[in-house]
């Protein structure tokens, strides 16, 4: 570990080997993780006089310690860097929100009438998995298509085994009702096999099977069955024609990246056996030093660290780390992985489709930013500020009849909601239903933390409430000696209708009712509604958590083992409630004082 005070001396003696470096702040928290082919050159570059971006300058000002790990090669450094980013999630690294596992379609092949079902988690079950899909919506679309084409069941096994008559799915022609034997098992298994072939991308094979069945039914003069097979063939062909991708085996991912007006967007399309399994969109935060090639390398390294790796990755930009990434991914997959950006034919169409989607997403994002900019500008004019506000915060309080009180703080900037700065406060020190005290506690805790950590204060702090709440906020600002934050109240009024809010300023002396089409009002409503949503969500979680809390947890001195002994002895909580104090004393480990406390908890009236 290198102390920043000795950085000049330490850099002279630092190794020139490849490796990973970690930068820490004063709280010993990792704020940045980087890789280097030459550690000495890379780390030294941060401390040379030169043109650093605003983000890098701010990061350098926070560095207190630097730690390094030497690796055998640059490829190992690349891999270890992404593992460390995943572990520490440093604030100055480009981070991706993709921690969830991918969903699959699961078929329990051991069941006499297998079902198709949504599945997420480790693939340890006996059966067949299809995927991974990029998102839940793609799975639902696939399951819905299969219901239309093959009418296989998707109900739970318990629902299936307890049916005495067909359900609604049969009536709307989405299931063949195997639960009440309206289809023979051999025919049902044939439908399941065709469903699995369809999911494997063997569409032509499925169509050939259906054609043969149609011909057999026609020769046997079962014209109704033949017509059903004909309709299936037409539906299947129509479904296959809707996708650009076809006649492709194996797994392929298409990755498109663009940076326009400092807005970065990445789209990933997952192609599995010729079927488009959907796409994902990412908007990573970047600075002016990041170009599309560098962003693509960072993204691929992070994205595939804990995800399914396809045999081929097609990218729309050239990346200098192509060979290293191929080596790392091939090693992790234990088979060859190819990354390419020079493609023709159907692959070129895939890239064009991905690029079109990426640019469309960026345009939507930029238009959204422009709208927020206009709202900020309108707020600046309303408040007669010399400069446009950079940071807005809003506080709200939520509870049910004064219980499980939760306060929220949300943060907005010109970029929109800054969710990393959102905070919730479980209110502890207030009497039941005292909204003023709850607001005071939340404000004191939040602004004390900002001052202590030298974090940026908001330009404006909105308070969801009237003059009383505004005065509480002003008193907190006075106590903490904060004079740069403007406090504004947002009162809904008696009717509590959107558009009729009263804006309270200047210590409650100035009250404004804005026009319903005011952009400044729209921004205030947006941040106020977000604070309300965030507060009520936290309150409900806290309330639901305590709803299922055992009353035994409120008894001091009663640990988990004693609880288990008590409940086991009396056969549950009801038996314990009926027990007398003398009976409770007889339990091993329960002394007289504890027995009295337990008895009093249930008989305090």
Question: What's the quick description here?
Answer:
With 605 residues, the protein is α+β, with helices and mostly antiparallel strands.
Structural summary, described in words:
There is one protein chain. The protein has 605 residues and is α+β, with helices and mostly antiparallel strands. It has five domains: 87 residues, GIY-YIG endonuclease (3-Layer(aba) Sandwich), CATH 3.40.1440; 139 residues, no CATH class; 113 residues, UvrC, RNAse H endonuclease domain (Nucleotidyltransferase, domain 5, 2-Layer Sandwich), CATH 3.30.420.340; 156 residues, Nucleotidyltransferase, domain 5 (2-Layer Sandwich); 52 residues, DNA polymerase, domain 1, CATH 1.10.150.20. The protein has 20 helices and 20 strands. The strands form four sheets. Strands 13, 14, 15, 16, 17, 18, 19 and 20 form an eight-stranded mixed sheet that branches. Strands 10-9-8-11-12 form a five-stranded mixed sheet, with helices on both faces. Helix 12 links the parallel strand 11 and strand 12. Helix 5 packs antiparallel against helix 10 and helix 9 packs antiparallel against helix 10. It is globular. The chain starts with a strand and ends with a helix.
